[in-house]
Amino acid sequence: MFLNTLSGRFLMLTILFVMLAEVFILVPSLARYREEYLLARLERSQIASLALLASDGMIAEDLAQELLVNAGVFNVVLRRDAVRELVLSSPIPAPISATYDLRDPGPLALVGDVVAVLMTPENQIIRLIGNPVREAGLLIEVTLETAPLRAELLVYGSRILGLSIFISLATALLLFWAVRLLMVVPIKRMVRHMAAYADAPEDAHLIIAPTNNVRELRDAEEALFALQTQLTGLLRQKERLAQLGGAVARVSHDLRNILSTATLLADRMEGSDDPAVARAAPKLVGSLSRAVNLCEGTLAFGKAEEPPPRLARFDLAALAEDVMENEKLAAAEGAEVEFLCDIPPGMTVRADSEQIFRVLGNMVRNARQAIEATGKPGTVEISAAEEDTGWCIRIGDTGPGLPARAKEHLFTAFQGGARKGGIGLGLVIAAELVRGHGGRLDLNRTDADGTEFRIWLPSKGGI
């Protein structure tokens, strides 16, 4: 609909505001017109009374009535020399309903009086008090009916209202076309550019060129230009990376098969009678195992398409105990690693239990392997606390801490490995799974006394 458009709403608002402004002009205009109308009746009444006084009262009754009719009043009272004198009179058809003093009326009083006249359709008799013109006395009083006054006010008001409607419509149309030309057309142009760009974001020819002279719209076009330029570059980079990733995956797949065969041959070399070969075989097996792990990790990371988490409440302490039991079984023989769980019994978390198991498993495994690499006893601990807006889970260890290079690229694939032979994917996958829950995985501290990570899971939309 037209009213749902920016142009339509601006047109209606313009008409409304112009009409509102005209109302503030119309009412004072009507008040002023009423005052002039009544002052004119007072002046005519004074002229008629002076004509009678000039003839020393020697005037026919018919002529006196004609003077009153011409003045538009029923009687005239003059006060001269502190004497109140009824100069002209005729029968009053009804009692006087109100008296108005026009000698020094205030603006609010005039507005209130004109509103009262317009809101009273019945014909009433009112008394007016005013100052005679040219100091022809101290005071003049007249009585008159309100029907003629109300009729003239309606005619005058209808003319003013018609003119106001014409002015408001003309102003609204002019503003409508001005806004359409200066705002709506440029906005539609940007919308067309965005729609065309969305269909083919890799096409640089569809990037908008800022041309508008209005500063705000020019800023919007320049922001859109910068966004489209950056996005097109990122899409091209992503396409190149995708192609590179596919090539790496194919090479890794074939290389893994080759390395697996080489590993089998190296295993057989360990039983060689040649001492030199027997000493070199374990190192060769270790190198081949790391190469195979790198290929498998690359393939797994390239194929990872994590589904959205299935949120449900589960017992966090029980899940953490399962993680630690698995790591106890996987611990190296002779390793002195203690696993502690400091989670309140019965504390439930709203998350995907399988994904959180993987997150905790990756992090506890990293901590265990870091302690085992030192050859010294150590502790891995999982603790948790529930807060007003979510849950905080901490995974800490008493290992040697992270090396500088690992801290710089902690959540970067293939660059954040903290142990020899690691490929740096465990924390990357863990961070992605936590972000899928709307949470965060942060490094809380790392030093010679150990390392602590913090997982924050929000509780919004809890069940």
UniProtKB/TrEMBL annotation:
GO molecular function: phosphorelay sensor kinase activity
Enzyme class: transferase
Organismal lineage: Bacteria, Pseudomonadati, Pseudomonadota, Alphaproteobacteria, Rhodobacterales
Protein name per UniProt: histidine kinase
Limits of the Histidine kinase domain: 250-461
Enzyme Commission number(s) of this protein: 2.7.13.3
Catalytic activity: ATP + protein L-histidine = ADP + protein N-phospho-L-histidine
Keyword Kinase carried by entry: yes
Matches recorded under InterPro entries: HATPase_C_sf, HATPase_dom, His_kinase_dom, HisK_dim/P_dom, HisK_dim/P_sf, Sensor_HK_Regulatory, Sig_transdc_His_kin-like_C
Organism listed in the record: Roseicitreum antarcticum
TM spans (from-to): 6-31, 160-183
Keyword vocabulary terms for this entry: Kinase, Membrane, Phosphoprotein, Transferase, Transmembrane, Transmembrane helix, Two-component regulatory system
Domain of life: Bacteria
Alphabetical list of Gene3D superfamilies matching this protein: 1.10.287.130, Histidine kinase-like ATPase, C-terminal domain
